[in-house]
Write a structure and sequence with these properties.
alpha+beta
Length: 159
Amino acid sequence: MSVRIGHGFDAHRLVDGRPFVLGGVHVPFERGPLGHSDADVLAHALSDALLGACALGDLGKHFPDTDERWKGADSMRLLGACVDMVRELGYEPVNVDATVVVQAPKLAPHLERIRASVAAVLRIETDAVSVKAKTSEGMGYTGDGTGIAAYAVACLTRS
């Protein structure tokens, strides 16, 4: 059996009037991440982790923000496409672990729905999806309320 591990990261500015989407779940908040797509930082970090595990580059290589086809794109669909890419190479996601760093909104009430949404796209059990929410105690762009970041690790196997 072959095991591969990938790491992903994403960050976006939070602005007024944008929907706050995380792991495909709409979280009520007055601001949301600014980006070419729906700017779902969790989906982007997970995508990069999957692609990285198979040395396939990053999300921008496959879905560049200079391509109008991806303007406003549902990032969970992009995540699904990344899952398909690694599966084409014979790899299967085993588990993922992610940390989202943002001062507000509070994410704890939404984490179970987010985990279930991610698990459905990855086609793995929910107990193989870990999503944690952290603040940065008022420090930096994630702490002053101007931004959000996500870090993710993915483990893939090929038998």
